[in-house]
Amino acid sequence: MAKFAPVGVAQETLKDEIVSIYSRVAEEPGGDFHFNRGAGYAAETLGYDAEELALLPTGSTSSFAGVGNPFVGEPIEEGATVLDIGCGAGMDVLIAARRVGPRGKVIGVDFTESMRRRANKSAAALGLENVQILSGDALSLPVEDETVDVVISNGVINLTPNKLRAFREIARVLKPGGRLQIADIVLAEDLSERARSDIDLWTG
């Protein structure tokens, strides 16, 4: 699996393109994109609980663009501190927040402003006071060392230009004995240079 940014593409250019695409997903979730979105897709393809999703604001679920289900592993315990890297419009944040309860805390990190607005609005609509949405990305998490019980992420690590640095950041913020539950895209072979230089393959 390629570990670094596209050949011939600056990391800031890649980030700008990702922000552009996912800003459009936030603002026009029903638009024409080459990846799946929404609560129906999440329930029918990824195994989310449709009844649980129906309780969440559509402002959050309609812009969901994950690739798997980070909740199918170990259960999220009541009272835990959870970090969602690349939280988008906040669907996974809201699910985690309901599971950790008022004694727990969920931090969502995303570098797309329109997605953060949707996540904050949805958390407020549900009266979830245990949610904090922060600006940031996987390569420089705005979270203190050893403060998180569970890190979740859904289709985001594959978008980062430096996977090793991203996993080092995850290790930094996890408490001793903490765990990582991610859903993502994994390749069995290294990408060719031609594929790595195609920015469209890196942005969704």
- Number of E strands: 5
Class derived from helix and strand content = alpha/beta
Cα distance, first to last residue?
Answer: 16 Å
Figure out the total of helices: 9
What's the structural domain tally?
A: 1
Percent strand: 15-25%
CATH class group: Alpha Beta
What's the pLDDT, averaged over the residues? Answer: 88
Biggest sheet details: 5 strands, parallel
Return the CATH topology: Rossmann fold
CATH architecture: 3-Layer(aba) Sandwich
Helicity range: 25-40%
User: Which spans of ≥5 residues are poorly predicted at pLDDT below 50?
Assistant: none
Strand order of the largest sheet: 3-2-1-4-5
Cα Rg: 16 Å
The CATH homologous superfamily corresponds to Vaccinia Virus protein VP39
Shape: globular
Helix and strand element order: HHHHEHEHEEHEHH
Q: Brief description of this entry?
A:
The protein has 204 residues and is of the alpha/beta class. Helices cover 37% and strands 16% of the residues. It has a single domain (11-202), classed as Vaccinia Virus protein VP39 (Rossmann fold), CATH 3.40.50.
